[in-house]
# Entry
Amino acid sequence: MKSQTEYKLASPPEGAISAVKFGPNTSQFLLVSSWDNYVRLYDVTANSLRQKYSHDSPVLDCCFTDAVHAYSGGLDNTLKSFDFNTTAESIIGSHNNAIKCVDYCSDVNVVLSGSWDHHVKLWDPRTPMCSGSYNQGDKVFTMSVCGEKLVVGTAGRKILVWDIRNMSYTLQKRESNLKYQTRSIRCFPNKQGFVLSSIEGRVAVEYLDTNPEIQKKKYAFKCHRIKEDGTEKIYPVNAISFHPMYNTFATGGSDGYVNIWDGFNKKRLCQFHQYHTSVTSLSFSHNGDVLAIACSYFLEEDNPPKPYPEDVIHIRSVSDQEARPKFTSSGN
# Structure
């Protein structure tokens, strides 16, 4: 049931949406990267497009470093920054292949870019220049900052954990618990672990602490699957976003559904109505009151619909009932 708690953003991107990210300490400003070569800044409260800047090719990811500075990268191999106050645009640096991930670590004040050239690079936003390049052994598909740690998911289902303050060696190398390609990784706000999703309708909850007692708590579950006429269709789980207060998380899939989960208590808290096409990115605002839901068609079927479904960003108010754990178990 759609209600007044949800609306579409005006002036959406004109290509598939690769990422939506709320600004720090705001439910008002949303950064959006798209395959139409643009990064856009929306004021979701006023439902208006504030500003946009372009790359030479599709943009695969973006992030805020503070309320007025954005970083972005994509198929032009170039990391750019943009100042929304002055509209000054800067080329910060580049990789030897597409930049798939761009993130910011506030604890260390460093921008991170992950690329299909197998490397993660660190960038000092004050200078701005590259402060290091680190081989991940394969294409970087997804990454997430966890306090002072970085969790990287690569091709070949590998997961690497780094200490951003000392990147001279890898803290941990793991293989994904999921049998299929990793699509997204996001870390728990309490920094105890991370959630990863695969292209084959599954999500895994993992813990960073290598203590065997803690590792016993890890598990995986099936989701984003639809039974039709006795057969089960299995969809990629494209997006994960954590509620910053409750450590619950939302997942979005190519089935067009968004679910909210309580990872510690192994429960689904709610499922929203089905959206018109694949959910490609999700972002909770800083207090968890609002969830941005990007819907774009990602050429996933053998016989794609013509014309392609439109690219839409839904802004949805999230209630406590939808996102809060039903009870707190011991040890959380």
About this structure: The mean pLDDT is 94.
